[in-house]
Write a structure and sequence with these properties.
Elements: H1 3-24, E1 26-40, E2 43-59, E3 65-75, E4 90-96, E5 99-106, H2 109-112, E6 133-138, E7 146-153, E8 166-175, E9 178-187, E10 192-202, E11 205-215, E12 223-236, E13 239-250, E14 253-268, E15 271-280, E16 288-296
Antiparallel strand pairs: 1-2, 1-16, 2-3, 3-4, 4-5, 5-6, 6-7, 7-8, 8-9, 9-10, 10-11, 11-12, 12-13, 13-14, 14-15, 15-16
């Protein structure tokens, strides 16, 4: 065998050693594209939001599995630029007998179970969310229907760094048609974010209530944020209708009193038509009507 041929074989072997781990992982690509025509208190506009989701999974040693989730997002203001800095942007999950650990830009405990009444896709007053975390540990199953999570974030980190230093814990219990949860983040600055919610589902009917409280740093009874949401959703065949109400107080003063209604219709092939409207008695600029489509792939 010539020396040149031997060098080529060695080069191919070395290259194959680097390529092999890629083939060892199961990789899938999905995402969604959302377009809507909006009328916000007389001002018309179009919204474009899209996400490309890249997922990879593989089996490590000792029964441990590993997966990665990278979500590249764009919107109507910069839809030529994609980034993964949004909520849940990028994370790697290691799972085994110890449960599962998400590392990267992941949900904090106070954000793991919230927003059950947020049915709208375009209009409506979105529920407040706790900041992200750098680590979210879902404990192994302790009892049927019980989920326990613990989160942590340092003062600063590349992904999930908007949370600041905190430690959080959350518990969710589901049995039959009922699911309830309670979670909190204890922040190093002395403040505390608490979420609690309940969801009851009967067939196509679902009713959800939620509470979010953000205590001041001094720990007094006055909350910097006190939010209550309730929503009803009914699905029949390809059609889903919903209604939701949310009130937000800041230092005991009502700053948001919003209602939202909508219809979503599944056209098949991942395509959904939507028609939504929302009003806010405290903020007329947030009165919005929208029609549009969402394509999930």
């Amino acid at each position: 065998m010539r020396e040149s041929q031997m060098k080529k074989i060695i080069a191919l072997a070395v290259a194959g050693a680097f390529v092999a781990p890629v083939y060892a992982a199961d990789i899938s690509v999905g995402g969604s594209f959302e377009w809507a025509y909006k009328d916000a208190n007389g001002a018309t506009s179009t919204d474009v939001d899209n996400t490309v989701s890249i997922k990879a999974s593989a089996e490590a040693n000792n029964g441990i599995s590993v997966s990665a989730d990278i979500n590249l997002t764009g919107n109507s203001t910069d839809n030529t630029e994609y980034n993964s800095a949004d909520d849940g942007g990028s994370s790697v999950t290691v799972a085994g007998q110890f449960g599962s650990v998400d590392l990267g830009d992941t949900s904090s405990a106070a954000d793991a179970f919230n927003a059950p009444a947020e049915y709208h896709k375009v209009t409506g007053a979105g529920a407040s969310t706790a900041p992200d975390a750098a680590i979210l540990w879902t404990l192994p199953t302790l009892a049927e229907g019980l989920t326990v999570v613990v989160s942590n974030s340092p003062d600063s980190t590349g992904e999930g760094g908007d949370a600041g230093a905190h430690t959080g814990m959350g518990v969710k219990y589901a049995t039959g048609p009922v699911a309830v949860s309670y979670a909190y983040n204890d922040n190093d600055d002395g403040s505390k974010i608490t979420t609690a919610n309940a969801v009851v589902t009967f067939g196509g009917l679902s009713v959800a209530i939620e509470s979010v409280e953000d205590d001041d740093e001094d720990g007094t009874a006055t909350e910097a944020l006190d939010e209550r949401s309730v929503g009803v959703k009914y699905s029949m065949g390809d059609a889903t209708i919903f209604a939701a109400q949310m009130e937000t107080k800041s230092n005991n003063v009502v700053t948001k009193d919003a209602s939202s209604f909508g219809v979503h219709y599944n056209l098949g092939g991942g395509l959904t038509f939507l028609a939504e409207t929302s009003t806010d008695d405290k903020n007329a600029d947030l009165d919005t009507t929208a029609v549009g489509v969402v394509f999930a792939f």
